[in-house]
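Running co-folding for zinc ion.
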Amino acid sequence: MRSVTKRLIDECREADIAPLYVMDNVIPVLHSSRPATALVYDINDKLDYDGLLQKTADSSCYRALESVVSRYGIKVGVGAQGHPHGKRILSKIYLFRDGGDDLRDIDNLFRKAHCEMSNGEISESYGEALRCDGKFLGYSDCCIESAVADDIEHMNILASRGMLGDRGYSDSEVDELAPGNKRMLRHMQKILGGDRIDMRTAVKKISKLSPRVRFSYFTNAFYACEPGCLNAFEVGRRVSTSYLGDDPMLAELYTKIVLPHNIMFVYTLSIKESGLPKPQSLYNFSNKCIAGILNKMTAHASGSGIDSMSIQNIIDHLLDNSSYEVTMDALLPKEMMRSLSGSGRKRKDRVPLDQRLNKSRKRRRGRIDIRKRR
Ligand SMILES: [Zn+2]
C-alpha cells in the first residue's frame, strides 16, 4: 500500500470516519479515479434548507472528514437535495478536488427546485439540478438521464394527484408512486433473482455476477440505468484499477465488499416503500468487514500479510457470527414477495392505493388542489 494511502487510512480511523466512507468516498478522490464523491448524511424534514445545511456542516462526520482530508488536497462541501415530493430534503457531504463553483450552482438549482416543489409547483430547475449534480460526481450521462427522467415523472405523477408539496402524505405513499423505485426493483430481480434471500445468499449471488454488472454499481446510492451499463462499468473499472495500482488487496476489498454493499443498498432502497426499517445492519456489516481487513493491512510496515483468501475468511467469519435483525427476506413487503414468487393473488384486506388516497384526501380539509389552480 502506498504510504500516503496508509497514512490517510490511519488518520481516518483515528478520526472515527466510517471505513465504508473511506473506501467509497475518500480514497477514489485521493486517487483521482473520480472527480468528486458524495455521501448521504442525513434525512430530516423538520429543518428547512439552510438549517439542514448548517446541521450537516456542524456534524461530527463533516468535521472529522474536513480535519483529515484537507491535508491531502481534498475539499469538503455540504449540499442538500429536495425530493420530487417537495417535502423531504436529503443532505449530502461532498468530497472533491476542484469545482467549488459548480457546487454553488448546484446548491442554487436545488434550492430553487425545492422551493417550487414544496409550493406545489412543477419545477423546471429540478432536472437541471439533478443533471449538474450527477455530472459533478462523474456519473455517466445515460445513467444521469434515466434517473432524471424517473424523478421528473415522479414529480409529475405527484402533481397530477395533488400530492406535490402536500405534507399530509406519508413517505411510503409518496415512494409507492416512484418510477425509479420500480425500475430499481426490476433490476434487482433481474440480477439477484426473485426468491427470498438472506444476507449470506445475497453475498454469494453477488460474487457470481459478471464484473460488468458488479462494477456498474461503482458507488453507494448510485443507480445504473441498466445493470451492467457499459459507461457505469467503466467508471467502476477505473476506480478498481486505481486501487489495484495502489495495493491489490485494496482492489479485492472494493470488489468483494464495497460493490456488493452498493448492490444490496439499491435492493433495500428499492423496497423502501414498504415503510420497513432502514438497512442499518447492512451498513454495520460492511463497515465491520472493511475495518477488519484494513486493520490487518495497515498493521504491517511492509507486506500486508493479507491475501485474497484471508479477505474471504473475514467475510465468512462475519457472516457466521453476525446477527442480522434485518435480512433481505424480512425487508420484502408481503405483496411484493407474492408477485416475486409468481403467485399473484392479492390479499383481500389490501386496499388499492387510489382508494387509500381518496380516504386520506377526505381526512384533510382545506388542502390546496394544484390541479384546480393550473
Ligand atoms: Zn448508464
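Result summary
The first helix runs from residue 3 to 14.
The CA atoms of residues 67 and 327 lie 36 Å apart.
Job closed.
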